[in-house]
Automatic annotation (TrEMBL):
Protein name (database record): Phosphate transporter
One annotated GO molecular function: phosphate transmembrane transporter activity
Taxonomic path: Eukaryota, Metazoa, Ecdysozoa, Nematoda, Chromadorea
Transmembrane regions: 20-40, 61-81, 101-122, 166-188, 200-218, 230-253, 371-390
Record's subcellular location: Membrane
Keywords: Membrane, Phosphate transport, Transmembrane, Transmembrane helix, Transport
GO BP annotation list: phosphate ion transmembrane transport
Amino acid sequence: MENVLTTTIEAVVAFDQHSVLWALIVGIILAFLLGAGMGGNDVANAFGTSVGSGVLTVIKAYILASIFETLGAVLVGWSVTDTMRKGVVDTDQYLNNPKELMLGQVAILGGCAAWLLMATVLKMPVSTTHSLVGATLGFSIVLRGLNGIRWMKIVNIGTDTVISWFLSPALSGTISVILYMIVDFAVLRRDNPFECGLRALPVFYFVCIAFNVLMVTWDGSKLLHFDKIPVWGAVIISIGCGFIAAMFVQFFLKPRINRKIQDEMVSKPKVQSVIVNSDLETDRYIVGKEVKDVESGGCTTKVRSFLGWLLPDKDRVEDEQTIKLFSTIQVFTACFAGFAHGANDVSNAIAPLTALVAIYKDKNARQEEEVPIYILLYGVFAICVGLWTLGHRVIRTVGTNMSEINPATGFTIEFGAAMTALISSKLGLPISTTHCLVGSVVAVGVVKSRESIKWSIFRNIVISWVVTLPVAG
């Protein structure tokens, strides 16, 4: 103990802040580029499906993403930062030379920024989390060899990383498929889907709001003292907020939606079949490119297999007015997904910069301070700049190029991915929101109409996931 204390004191005395000021400045610049790369790549995951379904324009998606990424980072994104900053590298190896740890953080920022910007230019959605893990391993092995890494933590994160290639998309896809099947059974396949959709809307809003509030209040922001709220208190608050949202939808939103759609139906000219080659905005919500002849006598008597009964009819033409009911809640779930991304991934991006600032201020490598709020906000600002300048590239890949998406499927895709990402963030796991959302898009697309999945794009995305760790490292 005395030797460690003596070594630490000597290192502090020998630490010249002026000699490493350049590393701090370069690190700040590279952190901005890393945030810009994340904004142009990862944030598109949250709002790409809303743009692809036509519910949001690109500009509106940018505005909402900027707001909710910030809220997620500030209110929830604390635990994952400490995982990436202190959990992977054995900082005790650098107690006698904190300058080397500073150089390592600069290397992490440079490697991750270069890979993310390259992937964004190539329109490939990749994981910032895995990029950071790979870069952290790379610098530590170069400077300290195999002794510079907390291998038990790396085994855990490495296992989580490999598992997340499979578990993240599988779990997120499963949740999204379950949600889509609920929507399908409760609304879409009914004889009167529009009326069923109106009745179900308050329930959907209750679940979305309650879960989101629970994730904010349960072991929440230390800045806002949410971490002092007991579990039962967080549950009560979330249920109360969900109930208020459901009542708002029931008595205010539903009548407005009903009147608006009825007015649109009255103003439209009556036709005998589905509108074809129309310029109306709502035509994009009609699922299916061909309308096949159907019997007009209601349910058929043909015996089908259980799987055929369980899965939606791939040739079904869904009621456009019913699909439009999910437009508003899809916007909310997009915000929810952006919040989840801010909670999980923004904290990862600023972890190296946090370490840099801590070393410069404290003159040691112990990493004992909490994450400063101004660093979180700086990271969010960089992400927003990248989103507004580069985000349209990956938005096209996720939102339009990989599968056909409408507001109903977009709602289930985004909510399932956000649930998976937020729960993982609460557990302190550096899971990838990219994997979650891509898994949900593919899973729902396969269940709904497997012909709509562009498997070549999905294959390229998976390859980019696999090479992220070694390339960033």
